[in-house]
Structure formats: C-alpha cells, structure tokens
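>> received
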Amino acid sequence: MLRKTALNEVPVGTTFEVWNRKYTVLDKGRDKIFVLAAEIETTMQFREDGEVYAVAPNDFRDSTIRNWLNDDYLGALLRDGPKNGDILDLEIDLKCTLGQHEYGKDKAKVGLLTLEEYGEYYDVIPRIDSSWWLATPWKTPSRSPGTINTNYVWNVHSNGDCNHWYYSYAGGVRPALNLSPSLLVAWEDGNCEEDSGDWDEYIKYLHKWAVEHDHQECKGSCPMSYDEWMKRLNFLRNAKECASRSAESAKGGRDKQMELRSTMQRFHQNLSRKSRRNRRAVGEGTSTQDPAERVSEDVPESKS
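>> returned
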C-alpha cells in the first residue's frame, strides 16, 4: 500500500516519491537522508566540447553537468514544491582513482555519486538499463603521465560494472541529494494494511513542530515519526478511556452509597413509627408482640 510518512521512516534501499520524482534511500543520518534518483533524469556530456575549464576537463567543480544539476534540475525541483530546509547541502569528495585530492571537495545542493559511494551503496542502488556518470575523475593533472588521462571520468554501465569515459561522451544523469528527515514522502509499504485516518492530524503536528523548532538551538533534532506519533496518540486515548471508566465507576459507587443511605433512612423511619404504634397498642392491651419483631417484617431489603 502507498504510505505517506516522514522520510526518516523509509528504509534504506527503498524507493519513494516526492515532487513528482522517484528517489532511493542510500543512507540515513540524524539530520539528513542521502538519496539517489531512481531513474535517469537526462542524458548529457560531462563537459561540453570547447567549454573553458579552470584545471582539467574531468573536474566536476566547473563542469557542464554540475551547472545543469544546480541550475535547470534544482530550479525544476523548487517549482514543484520543496520548502526551505527540505534540500540540504551536499559535499562531494573529488579525489581521483589514485586517492589524490587535487580537486578537493565540492559543495552543492545537487551532485553525483562518487566511485567510493557507488561501492559503499552498491547493494541498495537499483539497476537501470542505461549508463550513468559518477563525479570521480580518472586521474588529475599532477598525477597523470599524459594529459589525456585528465579527459576521463568514471561511469557505471547498465550491468553495474564501472569504467572510465571520455568527458564529451553522452551519459545518463542520476542526481544525488541530501534531504531533510522530516520531508513528507510516499512509498510502497508492504506491511501497511490500512491508513489509520489520523494522517491529517499528523501533518498538523509536523507543521506545528517545524514552527516551534525553527531556530539554531534545535539544529539536528527531528519530529516524531508517524509510528511514534501514533503510539503516543493511542497511549493518550487509552489513558483518557481508562480515566472515563474510572469516573463512571466512581459515580456508580456514589449512586449506590446514596441509595443505601436512603434505604437505611427509610428503615429507621419505619422502625420509629411502628415502635410508637406498638407502644400505644401495648398500652391499650391490643398487642403482646415484641415491637422490634413486628417492625422487622416490614424492613425493605437493601440493594446490593
């Protein structure tokens, strides 16, 4: 069943939908969720032929593909509804195949997976029938015997294998992003049989939580997941029901005590009246029965 929850409830390796696009959860941190596009967004060159570069053509920092990701693609996302804080900064380690950091690290809103990340998340990345770019350079200028080696960038084939491609070849683009754990998404949950009907109230809770925690001191904190929120809600409901039953029980006990008190009052009143009549009758010689014995015959039974 298609389930709507906060992103931090989506298991690693699961594909979800948001902003009319599909992503797969690769990793979950306390304050961010690392995701990869489940499908190819477009096919393009890593760097267009003739484009000016600062260091080398396989440097992601000023590449055609980076500009597209953080201009055209990000702009399209923002038009589809992300709020401030939904898309977080992404740090991309641009060390080359040999582990050299000549290109350092890049920071962007949208990026590509690196070769190291592809290996780390290999088992949870969905296979697609297309080749796609990584951000990792084959080699960098200071570590290349020949200039031609700085023309190559790592890519992934449709069978899952990796190799290096010439920067001007056309390859698929699978954007990678860090998203907020509280972002509301939809995903197929095979264990979810029905919607509890409390989703609207949970949405209100998330909006209220976001407003109340919109300051620096709350950085890194997260709202309750839907399951946690439902457990708390059910606990409060059960507590309220128990309190209601206790109140009804207490009221019933008070009513019973009042009824018993009223019965005892009637009993003493009858005893008093009959005792007076019997004393008068004894004085006139019309009765020899013990007054208490005669009164006891008319004593009503108390209700249990």
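>> The mean pLDDT is 85.
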